[in-house]
Amino acid sequence: MSWRRSIALFTLLHYGTALLSVPLAQAAPIGGQVSAGSGTIAQTGSTTTITQDTQNLAINWQNFSIGSSEAVLFSQPNSSSIALNRVLGQDPSSILGTLNANGQVFILNPNGVLFGAGAQVSVGGLVASTLSLGDSDFMAGNYAFSNGGAAGSVVNQGTLNAAQGGYIALLAPEVRNEGIITATLGTALLGAGDKVTINLDNGSLLSYTTDQGSLNALVENKQLIQADGGQVYMSAKAADTLSTAVVNNTGIIEARTIQNVGGVIKLMGDMQVGTVNVGGTLDASAPGGGNGGFIETSAAHVRVANDAKVSTLATQGISGNWLIDPTDYTIAAVDPLNGSSYMSNTALATSLGLGNVTIQTLTSGGGFGDIIVNDPISWTANTTLTLSAFRNVDVNQLIDANVGATGAGSVVLRADNTGNGPGSIFGTVNFNGAGAVALNTGTADIYYNPVSYATPNIYTGNVTGGTLNSYMLVFVDNTSAIAQNKIYDGNTIATIDTPFTFLTGPDGVTAGQQVSLSAGTAAFNSKDVTTATTVSFSGYGLTGLDAGLFSLFGQPISQTASITPAALTATITAPNKVYDGTLTAAPTFTITGGLIGTETVTATGTATFNSKDVLTANLVTANSNLLADGLNGGLASNYSLVTGQTVATSITPSTLTYVANAGTRLYGGVDPALTGTVTGYVNGETLATATTGTLAFTT
Predict the structure, then answer these.
(1) CB atoms within 10 A of CB 583
(2) Per-residue model confidence as pLDDT tens digits over 139-151
(3) Which end of the chain has the smaller Cβ count within 10 Å, N or C?
């Protein structure tokens, strides 16, 4: 960004409130020129009206701003229509007045976009971005926005409202919401990165990807984002491991259940270097009935403020889940203040009163992926705390789901959540010091790698009350069986050469216990020859007298295999032909066998006579064929047909024509010699080459 642009953007974004009382020269959009599609621009007084004639319309503006007493209206064919407004000038866009559209509006300005405190935006869908999008991609529906090298910030201090099922998307290296965003049954997306792709369909935002991060990516919400029955995404991705990516929430985010549709809230930071700071309110509850929604806060570091309120509570249904997905995670009364992932024990207890909570660690951001409970956790609600660690779960203080002997909570402690075992070095559940679990009516499920399968750690001394289930993790040896190729048979059923076996642990998985794998199923990803590439497995479990001591980690991993075409049989017929000097025949193929079920395919091809001559030609042989798709799902690519079919037939003589030359004689004289021309020869032949007989004349 140039120095002049930086100063202009700083002025608008950091002193935007003060600017509201200062009249802006030429605040209305100016210099609009249609660059793609068809439409008209009309300005009457303080109102600018854009009438869109085509489904997509792109306009290049010198400036796209709206003063506090001004309005910009888009009249579009329908809610799926999109009007792209691209700013080519040097000034940021300052939206202080009214912007209305019955369809979707894109505002692209690399210098920055500000929706001021008085802005009122009501649209079917909105993209406000400092990233770029070319006309060719826009008209083709390829909405991949990228940083052209000087992308500024997008800030909302006003009110942005999307139609029901619509969307608000703010995309830039830095995005801040200090106002109100609503998208009921739709999507609110605040995305920080240098390249972001969105997928739209009929006025709705279906998905997004951040394809390239920014040097200092920042997304934050300080006020209100509301998408009841919909989704709220706040996402920041770093450019590399030397840059930063931060997602902050100190405001209110609501995606509550309505019309029996649960909401989704996701605060997604970079999994290598990113930080998500959870404060304020995240509400995916179901206050009006139905089940609670889903909340995810994921980054290399996830820090939860002590006063944060996170709820997926459903008083008349099933409460939802809050997933916290960092690297190492510490639960303690005192923040270590080192920037690591952290939540206080009291904040966690409060959250468990408002829904289920899952803490799930990885190692993508460094560390070992451990979860450490350093201070007591206590709650009474009928909710579940799940601690799922990449390596160890270390319980150093009491987890109390039996407060006052009335608690109904449950606990899941899972080590080695990516299945690196067997062996305790790959992750286990440890109770140290005052570490314990207290239950009332709830359940404690513990999944761990033992030091030895021969000496299970039952954990009976660590869990009181309720129901305890402890399971040693066992693993499938993915190399012990090989998926087999097969001939097309019209289904996806796959087979293996031999049954799968366990991956042997340090002392053998069956040391002293009776447990074995129960058979599962194998299936191709497709029944068809051209698309069947992998075999996946499901339904594998454990059987045996001691199966209850174990938990099978996952299913066998997918393998590569293929389906080859099924062989068909066919007959041919070929008509007699008149001699033409070639071996070519005109065969008709009839499929006689090999088709699966009611499928049909058709066959065409070529064939030749055994001789081109009348006296010796008596057999036609097929020498090539081509299959074509038929009925009832019959695909030519699923079948093959060998050549060589034969049929008896013959060649009949070709008729020649003799045209005599005119001749004269004198009366009483000798007849002149007969001369003329023979026609009807084929393939360049002549009388000398065509026959060894004599030419006979008839009268």
Answers:
(1) 16
(2) 999 999 999 877 8
(3) C
Strand order in the sheet with 521-524: 521-524, 534-538, 559-560
Query: Residue 271 carries which DSSP code?
Result: T
Could you identify the residue written with the tokens 């194998």?
522
Residue 92 amino acid letter: P
Q: If 0-12 CB within 10 Å is exposed, 13-18 middle and 19+ buried, where does residue 189 land?
A: buried
Q: What is the pLDDT of residue 511?
A: 56
Residues 6+ apart with CB under 8 A from 339: 275, 301, 303
Pairing mode, strands 252-254 and 224-226 = parallel
Tell me the C-alpha distance between 276 and 303, whole Å.
Answer: 6
Coil, strand or helix: which one is 568? strand
| 526: number of Cβ within 10 Å | 13
Sign of CA dihedral 522, 528, 529, 533: negative
Between the CA of residue 240 and those of 151, 247, 366, 391, what are the distances in Å?
18, 16, 14, 26
Those residues with Cβ within 8 angstroms of residue 698's Cβ, 6 or more apart along the chain or in another chain: none
Q: Return the number of other C-beta atoms located less than 10 Å from residue 669's C-beta.
A: 8
Structure token pair of residue 103 = 């369809």
Which pair of structure tokens corresponds to residue 89?
């000038």
Looking only at the bridges linking them, the beta strands covering 204-212 and 252-254 are unpaired
By the 8 A CB rule, do 649 and 575 touch? yes
What type of residue sits at position 692?
T
Pick the residue with more confidence: 401 or 697? 401
Residues 611, 653: contact at Cβ < 8 Å?
Answer: no
Bridge partners of 199, per DSSP, are 207
Strands 33-36 and 56-61: what pairing? antiparallel
How many other C-beta atoms lie within 10 A of the C-beta of residue 616? 12
pLDDT digits (tens, 9 = 90+) for 465-486: 999 999 999 999 999 999 999 9
Strands 601-609 and 619-629: antiparallel
**282 has which bridge partners?**
253, 310
In tens, the pLDDT along 269-304 reads 999 999 999 999 999 999 999 999 999 999 999 999
| Residue 66 DSSP class | B
The candidate with the shortest Cα–Cα distance to 311, out of 283, 340, 335, 276, is 283
* pLDDT tens for each residue of 418-461: 999 888 999 999 999 999 999 999 999 999 999 888 888 889 99
The 8-class DSSP code of residue 549 comes to G
Nearest by Cα to 129 from 51, 212, 189, 61:
189
pLDDT of amino acid 509: 55
CA–CA distance from 434 to each of 509, 549, 695 (Å)? Answer: 32, 26, 120
Alpha carbon of 25 to those of 21, 22, 91, 94: distances in Å?
A: 13, 9, 12, 12
Helix (H, G, I), strand (E, B) or coil at 50: strand
Positive/negative CA dihedral, 140, 142, 143, 149: negative
Specify the length of the chain in residues: 699
Instruction: Find out whether 215 and 243 touch, Cβ atoms under 8 Å.
Output: yes
